[in-house]
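Why does residue order matter? Because the sequence determines the fold. Keep that principle in mind as you read this record.
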Amino acid sequence: MLDTVEMARMLYPTFESYRLQTLSDIFEFSHEQPHRAGSDAYVTAKLLIEMFTKLSALPRETVHRMKPYTEQMCNGLHRIIHEIDVYNFEQADRSLPNDVEIYRGFAIRKRQQHSESTQAASAQSFDAALFFGEEGLLSKTTRNYEERAGQSTMSTAVWKAMNNEEHLLCEAATGTGKTLAYLYPALMKSLEANRPTVIATETIALQQQIVDREIVKLNEALNEDINVAILKGRSHYLCLQKFEHFLDRMPSSYDEHLFAAQLLVWLVETIDGDIEELNLPSGGYTLWEELKSDSYTCSHAGCSYYNRCYYHRAKERAKHAQLIITNHSLLFTDRFSSSGILPKYDTVIFDEAHQMEDTAGKYLGYESNYQQLVRLISRFGLQDSDGLLFEIERSLKGKSITRYDMEWVRNRKQELYHLQSEWLQLFQTLQNIANKKPSATIHYRPSQYEGKFVMEVVERISYMIDTLQKEWLNCIAQLEDQHPEESTLWRKVSQLIDDFTDENETLRQLLVHEVEEHVYWMEAGKTNAFDRLTLYRRPISIASSMQSYFFDEVKSVIMTSATLTVKDSFSFIKNTLGLPKENVNELKVESPFSYAKQAQLLVPSDFPDIKQEEEYIDSLSEFISMLTSHVNGKMLVLFTSYDMLKKTYNQVKPQLEDLNYALLAQGVKGEQRTRLVKNFRKYERAILFGTSTFWEGIDLPGEDVRALIIVRLPFTPPNDPVYQAKANELTMRNENSFQKLAIPKAVLRFKQGFGRLIRTKDDRGLVYVLDKRLVEARYGNSFIRSLPEIPHTYTSTDEILSITSDFFEE
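Structure:
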């Protein structure tokens, strides 16, 4: 018997889905009648042939290594692997693919040699008209090319800022082509200065998109092989030494077996060894924690795999790159900690720059929860046949070591039990404190716990972790000398002890060390259970840190996004990020789209007040249902509250089923954003409910969104701790926190949401804002003024439905 899903998971570890329909699409099988027995059987047979072909083509070392890990899988698969393994070793002269090598029993994709910049590229200089013009280089390699004046203007502004060693804030509206507008001058500056230009995005998805789409366009237009490196955080990369050690200890569970087999296949294919490439089984991401690259266990040049190390390969590529594509988080780590992850650079471009404050605040702050230490303890494994302790006991058996014997290991195990008990007591105590407060968000200052029970428990935990560290590090120092063959195991233990120490420091930063300019709070989970409580600490402002580490130190910092201005002014973002008063250029690039013809903004005048939640949700549900027959296509509904989203979902779902409309919603069935958006695209008539992350970063052009509903203006909740602390500071300075803080933040968020509708020059659609404050409140004009010029109407729901019908009948 064979399980095709199991077999496909093993052989195609990077595929997004293993549904039969998805696999038939990937392999371009004809599957005209999905879910019909005959058609499904035919496609399954074609798929099996495809998989047998791949299995037979795998290097024999890979198949041989995989064999023991298929024993817990379907009998048929294990038998096939066994027969191919036997056959392979009978064919002694079987050759390897040119791009694969055998090393320490593994078949691994060979590393690609980095290329230096070419002479032709060096000879070129920046010329926006030559590149972006109607008859320019880009036009010759782009189908149906249309020159965009804003793209050339932005590119020139970026070049001037770099050349003059100035900073630049650039709001580039949707359709500008901002990525190429900064990539072209970034490359030219790198070639001129012989130093890389660093480009940082907020999301890893955008990192990949820049390389897969925009760099390809730049390459083709310049007819050059541009030297580009993607660099992510170290934990994204597989450590081959750890993987070898993982296999040596013989994985036991089904998840571990499937995980091992997937990685063995992946090693033949991957160049980067990046977890983002993988679609792992349920327990795979937990297992990755054991195999990811880290600084503590790395022996650098002393490691057998050093020349094949994926992380060091990525860093090496970055050293020779003209453009380095990274993310905000890694860039902040590099600057704020002076870690030297990136090579020296003079110029930085922040894409998605509106996210800089949040990401920098997280890096400069701390957070912890009950699960953090519990996960570390579970990696040691307190069960007899699980985790590092079991490996250590197995390693020590039969070895004559005076002090470090089984009794010593049992004592350490007992200490871990005591530590877990103290950690439990701490979070139960904190949850009891939280339960006495009316809000789920509880502000605190560490000083209020001095001399209290909470502090006593914290000190006991610190003492126990310090003791744990001393005992294990002394043990490792002796055992590494006496038994170097187990060096990987001892480095893994060292890393784990280092993680315990880091967690102890985080705990003390949250509950012992008090910094005046930081805000502290705890958040209770929905069930008010201690194991869902999270502690946070954040700086109230990142301005001074940004000024010290970026604006004073980096020659040119370019910050771009579609949403940086409020009422045509950059003042809010400049104050937030701590930009200096001088040496900063500003540019606002308007969209080339004709919003007046492509869209309208509609606000119903008869909707109930947003504060009357029950009545409001009734009206919202009824409005969505009525709108379906007038839009007759896809709709995106953006909420500011998950609670309201869920209540509306439950109310409107039965109505939409009768109307033959699919309803998808963030968080309701636990699907990831990427999967939800992908499923949404498949339907002709569907509605997608989203909150938080759906206000930005999703691209749904054309018929993918005909109507956008913004449920309410996206003001930050007044009890948000960082917002509250900022507001208090403004009040103390006799400034209006609503005007200076609440409105600008809401406007920027509103612009992000609005930007989900019109994505190309051919898109048409309607935006419905179901919050009368947009028109009736004095501050509503701040939101409207920050949008492109677009017709807006404030009228009854019936009239809005009539306008909708007329709009889509044109």
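Residues 34 and 218 are 41 Å apart (CA to CA).
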